[in-house]
Design brief:
This protein is of the alpha/beta class. The chain has 18 helices and 27 strands. Strands 10, 17, 18, 19, 20, 21, 22, 23 and 24 form a nine-stranded mixed sheet that branches.
Length: about 550
C-alpha cells in the first residue's frame, strides 16, 4: 500500500510539473507590457488568441511548451498600435484615386491628374491630398485649367483635410451647382461673380450626392488594401471615424469569413437614418468589430478656414468659420445618444465649436458616469474650457500640430495659438489622451505620431527645440496614447492595449527600442512583424 501511494504521488508530481501547452511562445525579447506599472518582460505565451502568461524567458519556458517558439534575440515588442481616429475605408478608396499628397503647386496637381488618366482612363476622376498652404500661392485653386483639359470628364479633388473639394465644371453640372447655390453649413466659393469650383464642408454634397457609387468589389478591394498598409505599420485596431450601415455590415461579413483580420472600432456617421437604425439595434460587439459610437461634425477645418472660432480669423477679418451642423441638431443628436448606451464622438476644431460641444455634453450627460464621450481633434481650446475635459475624452492627432504649425498662427493669432494643439493640457485635464493620425489626412505611419507628440518637430527636425514644447508628451504617455489609452477611449481596455494575461495577443516587433532610441531616429523605425490574436499577419523578419 505504501508503494502504491508513493507511485501515485510521483505520478501526480510529474503531472503537475508537465508544462502547459501553448500555441506560441515569444522569448528573449524586450517587451513593454504597458500595464498599470509600465513593466517590462522577456517572454510570453499565447493560447487561443490571447496572452496566457508573461514573465522571464526562464519561467515561461519552464511552465509552458509550444511547437512554435520565437526567439527575438533582444528585439523590442509592444502592444499592437491602435489608431484612435482615422478613415480606414477612406485610405483604401484613396488607392483608387489620384494621390495629391505632397504636391507643391497646382501645376503639380494637374500633372498628376494627367498621368493618372493616361493609365486609368476613368469616366469620373477623384483625387485627394492637395493643400494650398504648401504652395507658393496659398490662395484656393480655380477650376479653369481643369475645364480646359477635361471639359467632359467630371473631376472632384478633395483637400487634404476632407473639408473642401475642387470640382471642374463637368462635376458641378452633375448637381446643377450655380453661383446662386446655397446650403447650410457649407460655402460655394465665388470670385468676380464666377464659380471657382471650390466647395467647402456641406457644400461638397452638392456634387458628391450625384457621384457614381463604388461597386461592392471596389469597396472590398479598398478594405483589403487599407488593411495591408496598416499591418505594415503595426496597427492592429483602427477607429474608423464615420461609416455608413452598408460599409459596417460589409466589414462584419468579411471579418466573420476570415477575409479581413483588422479589428475595427466603427464610429457610425450620425445621420438621422443611421441613428434610427443603430439606436434601435443596440451595441454590436464581436472580437473584431465594435459598433458603439456615433461620429458627429460640429465645424469644418482650420486649413480651409471652416473651423468655427469665437472671434474672427486673424487672416480673414469678419470671418468666423462654419458650424456644419446647427446647435439645434447638435443638441437633439446628443440628447438621443445620451438616452442610449452609445458614445458620441464629435469633430470640433475651432474654439467656438469646442465650447458648444463641451457645453452640450455636460448638459445632456449630467449625472451620468463613465460615458467616455469624445471630442475628436480638440484643436483650438479657450483657456477656460480645458477644465471641461475632466470627464470628456480628448481624441487628438499629434501630426496635425507639426503639419499646421507653419500657418496655424496666421489663422488664430499669437494669443489663441497657445490653446491650440495643447496635448499636455488636455492630458492633465482628463488623465489620458487617445492618439491617432486622421489618415489619410495625415500619413498612416504611427512613428510619425510618436515623434510629433514627443519632439513636436516635423521630419526635417523643424523648429529647433520643438513647437510649443510645454505641450509635448513623454514617451511613456505617447505609447500609452497609442495603445491602452486608445483602448480606454473605445471601452476596450479589458481586452487589448497592453500585454497582459487574458487579453488579445495583439503585438508587434520593432527594429529598435522605441523608448530609448534617439528621438530623431523614431520616424524611420520599422515594424518587423505584426500579430493579431497571436496570428502573424505581417512579417519582414
Amino acid at each position: 500500500m505504501k508503494l502504491f501511494y508513493l507511485l501515485l504521488t510521483l505520478l501526480l508530481f510529474q503531472a503537475c510539473a508537465q508544462p502547459e501547452s501553448a500555441d506560441l511562445i515569444v522569448t528573449n525579447a524586450n517587451i513593454y507590457t504597458v500595464n498599470d506599472d509600465f513593466e517590462t518582460a522577456e517572454s510570453f505565451a499565447v493560447k487561443d488568441g490571447k496572452f496566457l502568461a508573461i514573465g522571464s524567458s526562464e519561467s515561461i519556458l519552464e511552465n509552458y511548451s509550444s511547437a512554435e517558439i520565437l526567439d527575438l534575440e533582444g528585439k523590442t515588442v509592444v502592444p499592437g498600435f491602435i489608431d484612435a481616429h482615422c478613415h480606414f475605408l477612406g485610405l483604401g478608396m484613396n488607392q483608387q484615386a489620384v494621390d495629391l499628397v505632397g504636391t507643391k503647386s497646382f501645376d503639380e496637381v494637374v500633372e498628376r491628374i494627367i498621368e493618372f488618366q493616361k493609365e486609368r482612363n476613368q469616366t469620373h476622376i477623384m483625387g485627394r491630398g492637395w493643400d494650398q498652404n504648401d504652395w507658393e500661392d496659398q490662395s484656393f485653386p480655380n477650376k479653369s485649367r481643369l475645364d480646359e483639359l477635361f471639359p467632359d470628364t467630371p473631376i472632384s479633388l478633395t483637400r487634404i483635410d476632407g473639408h473642401a473639394i475642387l470640382c471642374n465644371q463637368a462635376a458641378l453640372d452633375l448637381g446643377n451647382v450655380t453661383v446662386d447655390s446655397k446650403i447650410d453649413g457649407g460655402e460655394v466659393l465665388i470670385e468676380e461673380g464666377e464659380l471657382t469650383g471650390v466647395l467647402i464642408d456641406n457644400a461638397e454634397a452638392l456634387v458628391l450626392n450625384y457621384w457614381p457609387q463604388q461597386s461592392m468589389n471596389e469597396v472590398i478591394t479598398a478594405l483589403k488594401d487599407a488593411e495591408k498598409i496598416c499591418f505594415d505599420y503595426g496597427l492592429t485596431t483602427v477607429d474608423d471615424a464615420g461609416l455608413g450601415i452598408g460599409s459596417i455590415e460589409l466589414i462584419d461579413s468579411l471579418q466573420k469569413a476570415g477575409d479581413l483580420k483588422m479589428r475595427v472600432y466603427a464610429m457610425v456617421s450620425a445621420s438621422k437614418s443611421n441613428l434610427d437604425h443603430y439606436l434601435n439595434k443596440g451595441i454590436i460587439k464581436t472580437d473584431r468589430l465594435n459598433v458603439r459610437s456615433f461620429k458627429f461634425y460640429a465645424d469644418g477645418a482650420l486649413g480651409s478656414r471652416g473651423a468655427m472660432l469665437r472671434e474672427p480669423y486673424s487672416d480673414k477679418p469678419g470671418h468666423f468659420g462654419l458650424m456644419v451642423s446647427s446647435i439645434e441638431t447638435l443638441n437633439e443628436t446628443a440628447e438621443r445618444i445620451a438616452a442610449s448606451e452609445y458614445q458620441m464622438n464629435t469633430h470640433a476644431i475651432g474654439d467656438s465649436a469646442n465650447h458648444a460641444v463641451l457645453e452640450t455634453y455636460k448638459r445632456v450627460l449630467e449625472g451620468q458616469q463613465n460615458r467616455r464621450w469624445r471630442v475628436e481633434h480638440a484643436q483650438v481650446i479657450s483657456p477656460e474650457d480645458f477644465d471641461q475635459f475632466d470627464n470628456i475624452v480628448p481624441s487628438i492627432q499629434p501630426t496635425h500640430a507639426t503639419s499646421d504649425m507653419y500657418w496655424a498662427e496666421d489663422r488664430v493669432g499669437p494669443v489663441r495659438i497657445k490653446g491650440a494643439y495643447a496635448f499636455k493640457q488636455l492630458l492633465n485635464s482628463y488623465g489620458s489622451v487617445a492618439l491617432g493620425t486622421d489618415f489619410p489626412v495625415e500619413y498612416v505611419n504611427p512613428f510619425y505620431t510618436f515623434y510629433a507628440a514627443v519632439a513636436r518637430q516635423d521630419l526635417e527636425q523643424y523648429p529647433e527645440g520643438g513647437y510649443q514644447m510645454e505641450n509635448a508628451l513623454s514617451r511613456e504617455e505617447t505609447l500609452k496614447g497609442m495603445t491602452i489609452w486608445a483602448a480606454h477611449a473605445n471601452f476596450e481596455e479589458d481586452e487589448k492595449g497592453s500585454i497582459e494575461a487574458g487579453k488579445f495577443a495583439d503585438f508587434i516587433v520593432l527594429d529598435k527600442d522605441i523608448m530609448t532610441a534617439p528621438i530623431n531616429e523614431i520616424p524611420d523605425m520599422q515594424v518587423q512583424a505584426t500579430y493579431v490574436g497571436g496570428e502573424k499577419v505581417m512579417t519582414k523578419m
